[in-house]
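Bench notes, afternoon.
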Amino acid sequence: MDGADSVGIDGFAGRLDPEVCVVTAASGGERAGCLVGFAAQCSLRPVRFAVWLSELNRTHEVAGSAEFLAVHLLARDQRALAERFGGRTGHREDKFRDVRWREGYGGAVVLADVEEWFVGRVVARVDGGDHTGFVLDPVDSGRRGAPERPLMRQSDAITIRPGHPVD
């Protein structure tokens, strides 16, 4: 058997509830962004963070040639922003229209009004099946400021219908 269900991993993974984030990429005059559920720090020394992008996403296409990516944490009450980046596809529309953002370190697209963000230099790309892992070396960061709000988790975003097929 092939797939997660063949070894019972669906139950294990279903018990996890990590934060979601929006990953943005810019390269060759194009920009893209998507809601990501697979992201985590992956090294202490040196500090590294990995984000996993679906090969079906336009963000994956743009990130493939990007030197830097930006990773943004959303507050639980930022559902509209999560729906914009998770429920639409950049293949058909500009997700950044009507969203406040600025050019950050290395030309990265940094969203305004998010809880916290960092820009990372892409130091490795890892084939993970239907997702590619982008290993990032953080080079710049910022935060909204106090008071901190609860972060959006996968359980908060589970009802967002993806902008592209997930299977």
